[in-house]
Predict the 3D structure of the following.
Amino acid sequence: MRWDHLGDTPSAPADTALFGADAVTTRTFDTPEFRGITFHEVRARSILNRVPGASRMPFEWTVNPYRGCTHACVYCFARKTHGYLDLDTGLGFDSQIVVKVNAPELLTRQLASRRWQGAHIAMGTNVDCYQRAEGRYRLMPGILTALRDRANPFSLLTKGTLILRDLELLTQAAEVTEVGVSVSVGFTDEELWRTIEPGTPAPHRRLDVVRTLGEHGIGCGVLMAPVVPFLGDSPEQLRATVRAIAEAGAVSVTPLVLHLRPGAREWFMSWLAHHHPHLVARYERMYAGGAYAPTWYQRRITRQVHELAAEFGIGPAHRGASRPIPRPSPEPSQGPEQLTLL
């Protein structure tokens, strides 16, 4: 395993290494939820990651306390990053989890630096901050506390229900800065979920998160991702998913068609050949031009979802944008009043 020269790319020079081999502790836990999983605890040298200028992402900075993800989504684009450590991008990505155990203290220090200008920070854009490992390592409360204390704007994207544990911290942060929360639900088909996202909470449980956040005054958007060609894109499936999203009280729904980058593509196609061999040739044709489905297909899905969203009373959101928590105005007759959410 290669630790010494770990940067953001395979060619990162030694002086940009994020941590050294002497800072790594490997652990396993003999409990049902972590059986078969290896955790590599590291002390990172930096936790704020700058997004490359050529990226399509609408944000410049990210925080990723974990690498690898027990959600085990077969399509996850972040699989390739495990190759930078000479780790397997298939089962290794699902079961070899890198934990940056000093992430909260490191972020606290970096946010206090005079060089930091308070830019928006996106989380959950690489792997999920609220995957199962977070239940043991509890890195996110310290991270959210650091962001709250510096009034630094941020957004979160998750498939994990564990975010509700930190509801109070989220509402406290929202009182002093812009906070965006989105939950990823690409489909409500339970048969598809069990095979393609085997380590995630069920779609209806994720929508319960959306509902609960809304009930506590936190407007939550849904990233409808991925829309899976030929398996989750029929008009009936799209309608059922958007209807469920609307019933959960989502403030927005943003569709994103499955994309297959190197690392994820090979693992996904292997899964497809096992579970849906009749679709392999169709996928090879659809993704012959690269990682993304044809533009005409993406536009068709986007149009259908937006039409359904309008029908069910929710509007599209700009993809990847921060979704601020609304702050209700106080009653004029009572004077200023602080909203209590818990």
